[in-house]
Amino acid sequence: SYLGQDLDLYGKCGGKRCPETICYDTLSNYKFFFTFENSNCKDYITEKFWSAFLRRQVPVVFGGSSSQDYAKIAPPHSCIHVKDFKDVKSLVDYLRYLDQNETAYNEYLDWTVDHDVYSEVPARRKWWCNLCEALHNRSKPA
Question: For the chain, what are the domain ranges?
Answer without folding.
Answer: 8-136
